[in-house]
Recover the amino acids of this structure.
């Protein structure tokens, strides 16, 4: 199999395939090295002649809708992941595709979760050829083991928008599970029995796909207000008994940590933001999912109250912790990309300052700017960081593929990018000589915070100066690494990899930044 | 028939730990390794096992390591423990290198506001314990280690004492009761233990036995350093003998109480109001103060209840205790905050110390603030208040310059 791939060395010195799943690729050319040419992609021009004048686009079943949308072998079907692990729609969509004897479909979700485990059956039978999207749980393991056809393509949230917008991924049929919709196809995520907050990840699908199917369990008379998805982009509307289980939105990565070490790291991170002078009136921040990031927000909130500081905006993934800050007047706005818990859903419905955003506004690199780069600070996690501050979020040091990129790469462009990481996990070090997989170039990563100290990227002389004389435990990243290596019993061996790729990692501009290779069985 | 020994009972839920099994036989030594981190540390684990077994002079039998990411010092303890289980006569020890950061000294007089209990057989909890800066860490060999793991616990604790950085915390070990505790001392004492906690202290003879063992072990190891003691009273008899125990050893630095066992011993249980132990707690405070020791209160075991913890701390302060035990790092900060003096107390203490220094500089025999005379014990108390304030992070170390 390996012989079928040709590799090129990219600007980061990583070997990446020249072609992925039949499409020619551009190797990474540096953070700002690649600029696209030409025009954006566009869906075919529709005519109102083909749509009902009364605006009623309802179709009886998913199967009928897929047939009417012209489902054929080899097509690309997309979906959003706002229900996270509570999605009840996509398994039914592929069951219907199987009943229609369709084969070789490409599933293009913004992310897949454990609830999609039944789709392994369709991968094995050939209904689905491969999945391109963030893979979690059983599907992630399936792809890690190299069992999936083709290569998994790991994109950031912004990169997914970019890929569709640039025509790199053409969506034939977009499936938009919607907690509330009208028969015309206007849809919203913030209300209804299955409310999940917003539908921003599905927005690009609705704008660029050839055919768009809205699937809801809460049909309201026209007009559905607000319309996060515009009916003008929608072809068919299907009503089911239940589209999602909102209580399963909360996943392991969105629960507050109880680990004393991680709480300690979170507090240290908040202290850093304060001591570095970032926490001042009118500032902004984003704290990703992951227990430590969530705890950071709580510690920062305490300090903001003590110092009488108010933020202009906070970027979500919203959680009840951010909602409390909004409702207590500690920020003017939450600019929210996805709601991580039901308090976030409620707040989005009730608070005018809780605004739904999309990867276009927040993250898209092939746009005229985005929100992420305007953030004063962003706090993210990582599986590995190397002594040059390069970071990894998709594999562990033992080479196992873990999960998707989310908005992580897009957030690296903030004014101060902070990674909170445990110095080691079990016996696996997190600070290494060279990352197993390069996902974020070190020049964009400013600070790492571990329970054993803080390291500032030498490129950020300003942050080094700003925190000089503080009581913060600021240390050279190499000292930190030496301490951990000593504790863990020396620098570990590198995992043994085969030259058989299983996935590629895209940079925010669509170029290939790295390749994930199959692990040699031990 | 061959018998297989296990370093600990099989348990698939282990993290940062391992199980070593040993089947003695007459065939040349075989080592099998199964590890969660095999792709990173296979060779290193193999070398570690080989070296450890060679130090123990084991040349035959089958050794199986089932590793869940144990650090080297932990794995070494498991190998030694399982081999000694099969061959109790082996005297050799498998010692990891004694790190410089594990060799800092302690002193008799220091803050003992918080002391964090760490189960001696759960090394993953000790690795970062010092980061949370308790005044003391207690590596516990007694209640938290089940009887069939006493030997393993001892070796893990001994190795941890040689390897881990506790970042300035007082390095304490709670030994077992009776003869087992004296055996603990033989194993752990040479590895820079600062302070030994003696459970269920009831008579001064018990302390003498501990003292004599310490004298002997230090002498045998040619060590000349202080080892301090904190007896724990856990019974009616212990409480009634509080005075003789407090004065029972020149190594004593603190006197503590274990309220769970004590209340059981007097035929009741711990209540939220704690009326049942008022007498005992007051006895501890008075006996400790009479002998110049830190009176140290028992642990507060409801980890999630911070309001209850703060109430408990306040009561401990009111009764005269200098510190309490903790069982979770999150309890440390509230303890240090509460045991720090108030800003009023600090201001008063500063005035007294400056007055005392001025008096000394001028060669005056009498210290006064305005027309008010200050007695020497008051100066001593003020010094202590300042120390507590600095340690509790409410006063800068160089407060004289900053004011």
């Amino acid at each position: 199999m390996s012989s079928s791939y040709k590799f090129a060395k990219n600007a980061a010195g990583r070997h990446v395939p020249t072609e992925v799943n039949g499409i020619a690729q551009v190797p990474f050319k540096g953070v700002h090295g690649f600029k696209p040419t030409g025009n954006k992609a566009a869906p075919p021009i529709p005519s109102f002649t083909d749509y009902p004048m009364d605006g009623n686009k309802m179709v009886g079943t998913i199967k009928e809708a897929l047939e009417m949308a012209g489902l054929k072998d080899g097509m690309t079907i997309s979906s959003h992941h706002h229900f996270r692990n509570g999605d009840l729609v996509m398994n039914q969509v592929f069951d219907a595709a199987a009943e229609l004897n369709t084969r070789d479909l490409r599933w293009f979700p913004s992310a897949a979760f454990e609830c999609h485990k039944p789709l392994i059956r369709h991968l094995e039978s050939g209904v689905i050829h491969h999945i391109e999207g963030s893979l979690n749980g059983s599907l992630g393991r399936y792809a890690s083991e190299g069992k999936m056809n083709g290569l998994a393509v790991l994109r950031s949230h912004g990169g997914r928008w970019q890929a569709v917008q640039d025509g790199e991924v053409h969506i034939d049929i977009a499936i938009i599970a919607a907690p509330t919709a009208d028969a015309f196809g206007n849809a919203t995520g913030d209300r209804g029995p299955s409310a999940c907050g917003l539908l921003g990840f599905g927005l690009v699908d609705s704008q660029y796909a050839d055919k768009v199917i809205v699937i809801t369990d809460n049909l309201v008379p026209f007009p559905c207000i607000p319309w996060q998805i515009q009916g003008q982009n929608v072809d068919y509307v299907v009503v089911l008994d239940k589209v999602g289980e909102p209580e399963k939105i909360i996943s392991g990565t969105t629960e507050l940590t109880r680990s004393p070490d991680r709480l300690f790291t979170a507090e240290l991170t908040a202290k850093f933001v304060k001591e570095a002078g970032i926490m001042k009136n009118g500032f902004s921040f984003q704290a990703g999912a992951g227990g430590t990031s969530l705890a950071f927000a709580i510690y920062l909130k305490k300090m903001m109250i003590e110092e009488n500081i108010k933020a202009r905006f906070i970027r979500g993934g919203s959680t009840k912790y951010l909602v409390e800050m909004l409702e207590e007047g500690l920020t003017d706005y939450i600019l929210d990309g996805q709601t991580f818990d039901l308090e976030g859903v409620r707040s989005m419905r009730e608070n005018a300052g809780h605004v739904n955003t999309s990867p276009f506004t927040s993250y898209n690199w092939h746009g005229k700017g985005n929100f992420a780069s305007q953030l004063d600070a962003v706090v993210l996690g990582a599986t590995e960081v190397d002594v040059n501050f390069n970071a990894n979020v998709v594999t562990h040091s033992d080479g196992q593929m873990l999960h998707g990129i989310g908005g992580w790469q897009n957030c690296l462009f903030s004014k101060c990018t902070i990674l909170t990481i445990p110095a080691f996990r079990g016996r696996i070090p997190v600070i290494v000589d060279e990352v197993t997989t390069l996902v974020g170039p070190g020049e964009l990563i400013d600070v790492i915070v571990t329970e054993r100290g803080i390291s500032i990227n030498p490129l950020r002389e300003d942050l080094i100066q700003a925190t000089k004389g503080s009581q913060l435990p600021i240390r050279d990243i190499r000292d930190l690494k030496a301490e951990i290596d000593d504790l863990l019993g020396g620098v570990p061996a590198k995992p043994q990899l085969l030259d058989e790729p299983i996935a590629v990692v895209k940079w925010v501009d669509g170029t290939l930044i790295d390749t994930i290779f199959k692990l040699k069985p031990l | 028939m061959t018998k297989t020994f296990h370093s600990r009972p099989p348990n698939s839920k282990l993290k940062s730990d391992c199980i070593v099994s040993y089947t003695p036989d007459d065939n040349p030594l075989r080592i099998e390794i199964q590890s969660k981190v095999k792709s990173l540390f296979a060779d290193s684990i193999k070398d570690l096992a080989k070296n450890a077994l060679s130090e123990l002079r084991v040349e035959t039998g089958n050794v199986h390591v089932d590793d869940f990411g144990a650090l080297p010092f932990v794995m070494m303890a498991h190998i030694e423990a399982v081999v000694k289980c099969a061959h109790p006569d082996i005297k050799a020890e498998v010692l990891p290198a004694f790190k410089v950061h594990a060799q800092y000294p302690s002193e008799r007089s220091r803050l003992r506001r918080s002391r964090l209990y760490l189960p001696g057989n759960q090394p993953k909890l000790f690795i970062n314990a010092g980061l949370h800066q308790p005044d003391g860490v207690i590596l516990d060999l007694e209640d938290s280690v089940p009887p069939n793991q006493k030997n393993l616990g001892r070796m893990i604790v001994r190795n941890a004492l040689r390897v881990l950085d506790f970042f300035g915390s007082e390095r304490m070990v709670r030994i077992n009761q009776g003869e087992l505790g004296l055996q603990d001392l033989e194993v752990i004492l040479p590895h820079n233990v600062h302070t030994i906690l003696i459970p269920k202290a009831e008579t001064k003879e018990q302390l003498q036995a501990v003292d004599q063992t310490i004298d002997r072990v230090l002498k045998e190891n040619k060590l000349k350093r202080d080892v301090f003691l904190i007896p724990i009273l856990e019974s009616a008899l212990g409480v009634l003998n509080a005075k003789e125990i407090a004065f029972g050893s020149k190594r004593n630095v603190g006197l503590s109480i274990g309220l769970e066992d004590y209340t059981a011993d007097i035929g009741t249980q711990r209540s939220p109001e704690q009326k049942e132990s008022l007498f005992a707690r007051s006895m501890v405070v008075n006996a400790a103060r009479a002998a110049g020791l830190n009176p140290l209160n028992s642990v507060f075991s409801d980890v999630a209840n911070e309001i209850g913890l703060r109430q408990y701390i306040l009561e401990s302060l009111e009764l005269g205790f200098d510190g309490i035990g903790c069982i979770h790092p999150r309890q440390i900060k509230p303890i240090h905050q509460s045991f720090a003096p108030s800003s009023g107390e600090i201001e008063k203490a500063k005035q007294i110390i400056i007055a005392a220094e001025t008096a000394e500089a001028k060669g005056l025999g009498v210290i006064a603030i305005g027309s008010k005379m200050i007695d020497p014990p008051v100066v001593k108390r003020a010094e202590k208040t300042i120390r507590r304030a600095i340690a509790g992070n409410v006063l800068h170390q160089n407060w004289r310059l900053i004011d």
Remarks:
- Residues 311 and 331 of chain A are 4 Å apart (CA to CA).
- Chain A has a mean pLDDT of 94.
